[in-house]
UniProtKB/TrEMBL annotation:
Taxonomic path: Bacteria, Pseudomonadati, Bacteroidota, Bacteroidia, Marinilabiliales
UniProt keyword Membrane, yes or no: yes
Subcellular location(s) of the protein: Cell outer membrane
Signal sequence segment: 1-20
Main location: membrane
Keyword Membrane: yes
Residues in VWFA domain copies: 449-621
Protein name: Outer membrane protein OmpA-like peptidoglycan-associated protein
């Protein structure tokens, strides 16, 4: 038993050793070798193998083909291939050995070109190859990688062949398609068959025909490629014709239409002028006369006049109340098809009446002379039942025309045609009226009582030195019985001087009361009201003459005891029947509102561009009270005081003319209030639009500051009190606080400093109980000075300020 076990163990160990030799980790008994493992197509590879396994029943295969235990094989593979040598026993036990033969084929890695190219043009072909020794491009040998430029005269095939050392190859063929152009266009203009160009425009025609045998332009033989320049003076068509190589006909045309967009006629003329001879005609129109604006813009459907859409041609009638500009704009498509805008302007110029300076009899007037009549005032002393107009008649040289009311003159050729009353857009002509001429002689003379209200604000710096000598002259030349009083103002108001007829006393008082410095602010309305308070009620021989050249910007500080707006001034003047003549100097005035003040108080507005003309205006103010016509007529209703009154009269050489006076004792105060504002800074306008606010006043000076400071001095806090009171009494009112600096220093720094000043002023209001959401703060820096040149310390001090603008 023991011997049997020993024999079995010996046999088992022998079996394990044999199997270990066949299938163990050492595989040297199964060998396979390659002569080269990486080849090119066409190369020969020898594979050898040797199996040294001691088994009688052993099957050896090479890629599943039975082979001897040892051997070799020559191969010419075209593609990468794997060879596996396998030894398998009768019991199915296997051992494998694998080798890879990598075949590197000829490759065309890149072949690039355009899909199509214009006939006659060149194209570039690029290629890259790999594993080759030779490359041909359409049969010609070329570098293994590179590029070539070819001319395209037809559809062009491109063949690249990449060949290795054994003659094996890869071929790729692509085609570049040729395309043909038959171009006919105009330089710089869109490719359209019909083009609109301005008359006289020079156009350049270009053409190019690829696949053609000939070409003709408007019947004239031309080259297949060329250009021609022409000037378009009328509608013109150009036709290009050609015979193509395939025998077909080709034709294209371009039509140029002369653009007639533009102003054909624009004029301002008297409404009775039926024949305006010029394309552009601008006739000066007498004030109050009707006139017509006539236009014709061709090539457009509509135009805009003062931002209102109108037909492309038409007539607009109006009454000449003030000089104005009309801007006519239109849009159209230009030759490029883009929308363009254009505009032009024409101005309504008023024919100015000469100032009253002499007399002339009507019999001595020539047929070529003209007459200006003007309603000076409307008298309601006997209303109802009668209304009286005070009228002057002046010729072209400034002479008062005498004798127009003579019985003979009235009977033969009445120069006073009609009085036209207007109420609620309805007119009521009056033809039954009486005309009288008044010339006040020495025995009938009644003393005139004159109050001069003189603007000494900063903007009068250059005018006042010239104006004062004229006032001296007026004082010396006045009628001995006339009295004069003075009020001078800037942001402060002097006491009203006592009335005096003595020239020496007047000169002495006027000179003594002169303001030492011209300030930057204008309490215009408060000063006028102060003057009215010193006048007598309903004295027909008293009047105010207001001299100014600026906007109101400082009256609000007098709100508690004086009137501070144009509306209040007009209402107060009408209560005491006091005319306020206004003499404005220069261009920076609130002309519309000052005209209202004069017109609605029965006085006259004089716009003077030089001081010398002021002397003539002052003489006229006195003369119109000494020589005039009256027109009296009966009233037939209770609306007389609500009308405008127009006098239709014969102006001799100029025919029918008109003079209009606003006779309403209750003027449109809202309209006046809306216009009683100076131009506001752009920053303020943007804020008003953003917050949907409406200004109630012009900017009022609130407080001034020391140089480079933003703290409010204790002694200046009282300057804020009156503005605080307004905000306390009117809780719905808000305020814009605007800080300013002088013209010294860096602009960016000044913006910051000015805002700090505005914030300091606003904080005083907040500390007194005003909610912060009622206040808007702006730092204006140096952008809006009172004095652009503030090299003088006093002017710089006035620029360093905070202003307040009340809004709602």
């Amino acid at each position: 038993m023991q011997l049997k076990n020993i024999c079995f163990l010996t046999l088992l160990l022998f079996s394990i050793g044999a199997n270990a030799q066949l299938f163990g980790p050492k595989r040297s008994n199964l060998n396979m070798e390659l002569s080269d493992w990486k080849i090119f197509p066409g190369d020969t590879v020898t594979i050898t193998w040797d199996v040294t396994i001691n088994r009688k029943q052993l099957k050896v295969t090479l890629n599943d083909s039975v082979v001897d235990r040892s051997g070799s094989l020559q191969l010419v593979p075209d593609t990468t291939v794997f060879y596996r040598l396998t030894a398998e026993t009768a019991k199915g036990k296997r051992v494998n050995r694998t080798k890879k033969i990598k075949v590197l084929p000829p490759l065309i890695n890149r072949l690039s070109m355009s899909d199509s190219t214009r006939f006659g043009h060149q194209d570039e072909v690029r290629w890259m190859t790999e594993n080759v020794e030779k490359v041909t491009f359409n049969g010609d040998e070329v570098p293994l990688s590179g590029d070539s430029v070819i001319s395209i005269m037809h559809d062009q095939p491109v063949t690249i062949r990449a060949i290795n050392k054994n003659g094996r190859f890869e071929t790729r063929t692509e085609t570049i398609h040729a395309w043909y152009t038959h171009r006919f266009d105009a330089s710089g203009l869109p490719p359209k068959d019909t083009l609109i160009v301005f008359g006289g425009k020079e156009v350049k025609l270009n053409w190019e025909l690829d696949d053609a045998s000939n070409a003709k332009l408007n019947g004239k033989t031309v080259r297949l490629k060329g250009f021609q320049t022409d000037t378009i003076r009328k509608d013109t068509t150009f036709v290009l014709q050609s015979i193509l190589h395939d025998g077909s006909e080709w034709e294209k045309s371009i039509t140029f239409l002369k653009n007639t967009v533009g102003v054909q006629h624009l004029s301002i003329s008297n409404i009775f002028n039926k024949s305006v001879p010029f394309t552009f005609y601008n006739e000066a129109i007498r004030k109050y006369n009707p006139y017509k604006l006539q236009w014709n813009v061709s090539g457009v459907n509509s135009v805009k006049i003062k931002e209102t859409h109108r037909p492309s041609s038409g007539i607009l009638a109006d009454q000449a109340m003030e000089e104005k500009d009309y801007t006519i704009s239109w849009s159209y498509y230009d030759a490029m098809g883009r929308i363009r805008e254009d505009s032009t302007s024409i101005s309504l110029a008023l024919q100015q009446r000469p100032l009253f300076n002499g007399n002339i009899r009507t019999e001595t007037l020539l047929e070529s002379d003209t007459i200006f009549m003007e309603i000076i005032s409307v008298n309601y002393d006997n209303y109802p039942p009668e209304t009286e107009l005070k009228v002057i008649a002046i010729d072209g040289q400034g002479n008062f025309v005498k004798g127009l009311a003579d019985d003979k003159q009235i009977k033969e050729d009445n120069p006073f045609h009609t009085v036209i009353k207007k109420y609620e857009d309805k007119t009521y002509p009056v033809r039954n009226f009486s005309v009288k001429e008044y010339e006040i002689g020495e025995t009938e003379y009644r003393p005139q009582h004159l109050m001069m209200v003189l603007d000494y604000s900063g903007s009068m710096e250059y005018s006042m030195p010239e104006l004062e000598p004229l006032i001296h002259k007026l004082i010396k030349e006045k009628h001995p019985m006339d009295t004069i009083r003075f009020v001078k103002f800037d942001e402060t108001i002097t006491a009203v001087s006592p009335p005096s007829a003595n020239p020496d006393s007047l000169l002495s008082y006027f000179n003594q009361k002169g303001m030492e410095e011209l300030s930057g602010y204008t309490a215009l309305y408060a000063a006028t009201d102060s003057a009215m308070n010193a006048m007598h009620t309903n004295n027909p021989n008293q009047r105010i003459i207001l001299f100014t050249d600026g906007y109101e910007n400082a009256s609000f500080i007098y709100k508690n005891h004086l009137n501070t707006s144009a509306v209040e001034i007009i209402r107060r003047a009408n209560e005491i029947s006091l005319p306020i003549h206004v003499v404005s100097l220069g261009g920076y005035v609130n002309e519309q509102v000052l005209k209202y003040v004069a017109d609605y108080t029965g006085a006259h507005y004089y716009q003077m561009n030089d001081v010398e003309s002021v002397s003539e205006a002052l003489r006229e103010i006195f003369k119109t009270n000494l020589h005039y016509y009256t027109i009296n007529y009966e009233t037939s209703n209770n609306y007389e005081r609500e009308k405008t009154i127009t006098l239709e009269y014969d102006g001799k050489a100029t025919g029918i003319n008109y003079s209009t006076k606003n006779a309403a004792k209750k003027p449109n105060l809202r309209k006046i209030s809306q216009q009683d504002l100076p131009p506001l800074p752009a920053d303020v306008e943007l804020l008003l639009q953003k917050e949907n606010l409406v200004p109630l006043t012009g900017p009022q000076n609130m407080i001034n500051f020391r140089f480079d400071k933003h703290h409010i001095r204790e002694e200046c806090t009282h300057d804020i009190t009156q503005y605080l009171q307004v905000l306390q009494e009117e809780p719905e009112t808000k305020a814009i606080i605007m800080g300013h600096t002088d013209m010294t220093g860096d602009p960016e720094y000044c913006i910051t400093l000015s805002r700090k000043r505005a914030e300091a002023a606003a904080q005083k209001l907040i500390d007194a109980g005003i909610r912060s959401d009622r206040l808007f703060i702006l730092g204006m820096g140096q952008k809006h000075p009172l004095w652009p040149d503030d090299s003088e310390p006093a002017k710089a001090a006035e620029n360093r300020r905070v202003e307040i603008l009340f809004v709602e």
